[in-house]
Design goal:
This protein is of the alpha/beta class. It folds into 2 domains: about 140 residues, Ribonuclease H-like superfamily/Ribonuclease H (Nucleotidyltransferase, domain 5), CATH 3.30.420; about 90 residues. The longest helix is centred in the last third of the chain and has 47 residues. The protein starts with a strand and ends with a helix.
């Protein structure tokens, strides 16, 4: 089975595979100086040329969903998406499928969830296709495991604090136990202190996530330089793998 995955953006990634073997990959780079109609027509011509040359049996396209990008970006991607569907349909008719990001992420490379980040998908793709890179995947995994341990410890502490807060609130509101005013003040202060700690933990988690993203942003650039597998191309590989798995399962 010969198929293409397509990740839509101003620099759209594509990947051609046969069964689970990566044959070719690349990008369609739109020209920023063009106005919107020109960009859309240029994208149509580039995709049509690609499909004519590669002759895939299927094309799997990342669908557009409302996310955090904003209405303007959503409208732009939706227009690109429409051009991609129309152009692909000329060649393949019913063998064009769309997959939302959360779905294809969780049904593509092993270990990915629906909220996987770009660098996670890139690492999974490079490892899946066994592409050589300088460095050891186990070293990268150690960084992730270390960060995950910290994350789990912080979350566990916050869960424990919430349980303790609920117990203190129950004691404070209990009609069976008569509390003097000083005891009530102490209980309220303890509840506030634990709530502050939970908020501090939330900030700490966000800071750790930002540090991890910065760490892997550098790794991502290095991997792209060594392998040619940019984040957009790796996303296209993920969409393609999702479609391939689903199509194979349907034919069984």
């Amino acid at each position: 089975m010969r198929y293409i995955g397509l990740d839509l953006a101003s620099c759209s990634g594509w990947a051609l595979l046969e069964d689970d073997v990566l044959l070719e990959r690349g990008t369609i780079q739109l020209i920023s100086q063009m106005d919107l109609p020109q960009k859309l027509h240029y994208f149509h011509l580039e995709l049509r040329s690609l499909l004519t040359r590669l002759q895939p049996e299927w094309i799997f396209i990342e669908d557009v969903i409302l996310g955090i990008s904003g209405a303007k970006t959503l409208a732009y991607l939706a227009r690109l998406n429409g051009v991609a569907i129309a152009t692909s349909f000329e060649f393949l008719q019913e063998r064009v499928k769309l997959y939302s990001p959360p779905y294809w992420k969780s049904h593509s490379f092993e270990g990915l969830g629906g909220m996987a980040k770009k660098w996670q998908i890139q690492l999974a793709a490079v490892e899946h296709y066994n592409l050589p890179i300088t460095g050891d995947f186990s070293d990268i995994s150690k960084v992730i495991i270390s960060k995950d341990l910290i994350k789990n410890q912080i979350k566990s502490e916050s869960d424990t604090l919430r349980i303790e807060i609920n117990k203190l609130k129950s004691k404070l509101n209990s009609k069976r136990t008569l509390l003097i005013n000083d005891d009530r003040i102490d209980l309220n202060n303890e509840i506030k202190a634990k709530a502050i700690k939970i908020n501090d933990n939330k900030k700490l988690l966000k800071d750790n996530e930002k540090k991890l993203d910065k760490t892997f942003a550098k790794i991502s650039i290095d991997i792209a330089a060594q392998t040619g597998m940019t984040e957009n191309i790796c996303d296209a590989c993920g969409v393609a793998l999702c479609g391939y798995k689903e199509t194979i399962n349907e034919s069984v």
